[in-house]
Structure formats: structure tokens, C-alpha cells
Amino acid sequence: MSKGFFITLEGIEGCGKTTQAKLLGEYLKGKGREVVSTREPGGTAIGKRIREILLDPKSAGMDRSAELLLYFADRAQHVAEVIEPALTRGAVVICDRFVDATAAYQGFGRGLDMDTIADLTEAATHGLTPDLTLLLDLPVEEGLKRARKRNGDNEQGHEGRFEEEPDEFHEKVRQGYLTIASCEMDRFKIIDASGTVEEIQAAIRKVVTPLLSPS
Fold first, then answer.
1. pTM across the whole model
2. Is the per-residue pLDDT at 166 higher than 90?
């Protein structure tokens, strides 16, 4: 049985990851691939409960180390229950956020120790690394404008804890992502997320299609 292919989508709030992940999954299914679309946090039943705690604005007083460990608890369950089994059977896994989100948000954004994050990453993932990471890059002001509008339109204010962080926090996260990408250029592809949904998806398909031979 062939090894699967692991794609992650990353970026600041409002960059369009969720929409683009869905469209990419539909595209690859149309090409005959088995696709498992998932997300972090919340890719498992246990993870959904953790997600509620992490993203709820009522958790605003959460200690940053507690936040970090909850993300890794979610990730350990997610890798064991969803991601590794899917890759073993040869599926394409598309994940909305993964380890780079923790480095960007809790490392660069919160200022937590990167060596500690690296050690926890190894423990939670057993060394699993995405084959391709698509970084949807967008100016912070535009991303937050989109995210806050989305939360209002969809009545998702209960998941808006990070949108309530100051712009300076989100700028640290964006620069963190760009720094990570510059250190792993073979894995990362930076996608301009300022265009239309269709333009962004076309750019993503241009990157992904050559990497996936027909099943």
C-alpha cells in the first residue's frame, strides 16, 4: 500500500485556510484520491472538547503554558486517531493547522520557549512532518477584518478568543510564520491570500498537482 501525502494549511486569522482546504479536498477527490480533511484543534471527538476550551473567549485568563499543553493534547490524539492511520493506508491528509501553528502562535506570539515546543512536538507527533505546508499570507489588518466579520456573520463569537488579541500579537504570529517558512523552504510554499477565493485556489492547485501522481 502506498504511503499517503500530508498537506497542512497555515496562516493568521482570516487568511482563508478553511475555505481553501475544503476546495482543495474536493479537487483531489475529483482526481480519484482518497482525501481525509481535518483540522486542529478539534480533529477528533476528544479534540472537539479541547477546542471549545481553547477558542472560547471565556478562556481569556488561560495561562499560556496551559494553552500550549492543551494544543499538544489535542495533537497527540489527532495524530494517533486520524492522521497516522490515514497516511498508512495511502490517503491524502489535508489539515487546517498543525505544528507550525503552535510555533507561530505560542512560540513567536506568546513568547514560549521554542526548545520546549520542539520537544513537545516530537512527543505528540512521533516525528511526523507534513510533506507540504501551504502558508496563506495576508496582512494582519485585512485578516482580522475578515475573521471578525466571519465570526459575526456565522455567530461564531464563541470561537473568537484569538481574534480578541491585540494587532501586535497577530503581527508577531505572521512574522513567526514567515520566519519558519524561510527556514524550511523545501516544505513551505507561500501563497498570496489577498486575492479572490478562486485566485488563491488556482495558486494552491498549481503547487499541489505536480506533487501528487495519479492514484
1. 0.92
2. no
